[in-house]
Write a structure and sequence with these properties.
Number of domains: 4
Strand content: 5-15%
Radius of gyration: 26 Å
Number of helices: 16
Bound molecules: adenosine-5'-triphosphate, magnesium ion
CATH architecture of the largest domain: 3-Layer(aba) Sandwich
Strand order of the largest sheet: 2-3-4-1-5
Distance between the termini: 75 Å
């Protein structure tokens, strides 16, 4: 049990550290609260005073913990998405296996060949084509801790808060390593400093500091980022040793579209479906569009059943109707992307994007 002096020293220490080291400050406030509650049972004459102070210390500790907790970035339920749930993208899966999953699984082998695990990979490509899906599956396949950060969640309008959030995120990742930190919608955090307002520049600077601090002892930290505006990412972040590897996540090709349609319909009652035919009919659709097609097609017999009380399976016709009723945003995205990349002279940096965009223009897709 602490005596009164020791308790007040704890409180003073907690107050002093509040701004400098909020985590330790919270710990000391909690210790003080516990000690005060205990002391109140031994000194009934001071009970109200001690309990009031205990409550204040406890609330202060909770406040500080909430402020410093990055745990909010970890999704509560572990997702079970694996590569099996991703249609197509075979080559990319292989590349991810070699660059990310195997180094985490066999660090010794990679060290032997002078290859390091960890580092940074930037995934870019049109919306709805599987970037976020791949990141989640990668973490599950590698069997490592996974912190999913929506980049805008790290940003604060208060001066210095964004940097603090980033620093704490990396600190937490180091504690649980091997860890994959996934920065989703990365453009909102890592956008080019020359375009950004003053307080956004510091976010990029802090990221650079953290990444440059990832020395060889910290081989077990992998940074994955995803964006559909790669041209707006600060070039300094795309250098070797940072997000040095860029991976283009293309729209699904015919084979991939067939897989994605199958993945989305496999657990539903369907008539015999010619997936090859459907894959042809959905040229120019993203994975998200294909998912929407399957949802729409399913709703047709479902609604009918609600009226008639009879059940029928999802038919080819339902799927055709759903396809006709779905407009993909891939075409406008590629035109905008090509424009932006050309405007900034980044054709060499994003060659696959440019090729894919030109293919679309030629085909008139
Ligand atoms: N290759 C794929 N295989 C299976 N489903 C896919 C695939 N690509 C996209 N989808 C479906 O589309 C949805 C959206 O995909 P995802 O969130 O991964 O897109 P994204 O590339 O991250 O898009 P954004 O740039 O808008 O964030 C997924 O939840 C999934 O249902
Ligand atoms: Mg995404």
């Amino acid at each position: 049990m602490c005596n009164e002096n020791e308790i007040f020293t704890l409180v003073q220490l907690a107050q002093k550290e509040e701004n400098v080291n909020p985590k330790d400050s919270a710990k000391n406030y909690l210790l003080a609260a516990q000690a005060l509650v205990e002391a109140s049972t031994h000194h009934p004459e001071k009970e109200p005073q001690y309990l009031e102070l205990a409550q204040k210390s406890y609330l202060k500790a909770k406040q500080l913990q909430e402020k410093t907790q990055i745990n909010k970035f970890i999704p509560p339920a572990k997702n079970k998405i694996t590569f099996e749930h991703i249609g197509g993208l075979k080559q990319l899966k292989e590349e991810i296996k070699l660059k990310i999953i195997e180094p985490f699984k066999h660090p010794d082998l990679f060290q032997y060949y002078g290859k390091q695990a960890g580092g940074g990979i930037l995934m870019y490509g049109p919306p709805g084509c599987g970037k976020s899906l791949i990141a989640k599956a990668t973490a599950n396949e590698a069997g490592v801790s996974f912190i999913h950060v929506k980049s805008s969640d790290l940003k604060s309008k208060y001066v210095g808060e964004t940097e603090k959030n980033i620093a704490e995120l990396f600190a937490q990742a180091r504690e649980t390593q091997p860890t994959v930190i996934f920065f989703d919608e990365f453009d909102s955090l890592g956008s080019d400093r020359s375009d950004a307002p003053a307080h956004d520049k510091s976010a990029v600077a802090q990221l650079l500091t953290e990444m440059d601090g990832m020395d060889s002892k910290e081989q077990q930290l992998l940074l994955l980022a995803a964006t559909n505006e790669p041209w707006s990412i600060d070039p300094a972040l795309r250098r070797e040793g940072r997000f040095g590897t860029t991976l283009f996540i293309p729209p699904p090709d015919e084979e991939a579209r067939r897989d994605i349609l199958q993945i989305n319909l496999s657990h539903r009652p369907t008539e015999e479906i010619n997936y090859d035919e459907l894959a042809k009919l959905t040229a120019g659709f993203s994975g998200a569009d294909l998912k929407a097609v399957c949802e729409l097609a399913t709703e047709i017999p479902l609604k009918e059943s609600l009226h008639t009380g009879k059940r029928r399976k999802i038919s080819k016709d339902d799927l055709r109707k759903a396809i006709n009723g779905t407009r993909s945003i891939l075409k406008p995205w590629f035109s905008k992307a090509l424009q932006q990349v050309q405007k900034r002279g980044l054709e060499e940096d994003f060659t696959e994007l440019v090729q894919e965009a030109r293919k679309g223009v030629k085909m008139g897709a």
